[in-house]
Model the fold of this input.
Amino acid sequence: MLQKIYLLLRLALAATLVFLAVWLLKDVLTVVFAASLLAVILHGVARLLVRFTRLPFWLALTLVVLALVGLIVGFVAVAGPGLVDQTVKLRQALVDQTHGLHDRLAGTRWGGMILNQVPQSLGGDQKGGGGGSFGKEVAGSLAGFLGSVFGLFGTLLVVVIAGLYLAASPETYANGALRLVTPRHRPHAKGLFEAAGNALWAWSAGQALDMLVVGILSGVGLWLLGVPLALALGVLAGLFNFVPYIGAAIGAIPAIIIAFSVGSATGLETCALYAVIQAFEGNVMAPLIQKRAVDLPPGLTILSQTAFGSILGVPGLIFATPLTAALLAVMNKATRTLEPDEVI
Done:
């Protein structure tokens, strides 16, 4: 009896220490996982290139990196000016619509009561609220924004550099991690590392195909509907689809807003377009891809996004699905399968 209590206390203590370590080092762990995922993708694509071209691995990896950089630079060069111009037009359209809505509400009794409860900074008529400190608030907000931007670029730079080193020589770092494991458990730990890496690559390949199809369908559909910047919006829809369910909804917002700036009918047609694309993606394409990649139940995907999002913030929400896929692969490798009489 005492041994069981002692074992439970050890497990509880270990779980508490792991949770505290993750909570205290969450930013570092997020960067490490992001770099590892980037390394898995670059290494996997480079291996495919080596298989079909017989090039040296270092040359294949260099070509993959140059191709990705060229795609990013080309997208910014082609779509950047149009996005800026459309953003300015969209802002003006939103301002005009806001003034029109304010005038319509001000012409009615109930509308005037509502406007009196809304601060002037939000388009209402409520007065007061620290006008003298407005400059300081703007300056503080600007400083915080610049700090966050530079911090984001610094983090991305660390992720890219670390990902390149990991992709160029993953064996060096994997063998270094294996040396921390006792010799008796190294073969099992090696199998767990390989299972996690294979799961990340399978998920990345399947998700890339899913993103490509969603991006093409969105871009072509928006072009047929006459929405400006259809190509750029299609690319954004595909990129946001990296995050299942939530990313699809976020990726549709820019296109819907721009479509409504063109006309109400175009906006409604764009909403219908994205609804059809997501229905096709969720009910037809995703199940077919998961049969060949990593099968994650929708309920587990949503719960993992909620859990990792609450622990790690926005990065946890972005990387929740590949992290869950890797953890699920490790658990399947580390535990035995259920016997027929044990299945519910």
Observations:
- Residues 26-79+151-180 form one domain.
- Confidence is low (pLDDT under 50) at residues 129-147.
- The CA atoms of residues 206 and 291 lie 10 Å apart.
- The longest helix spans residues 57-106.
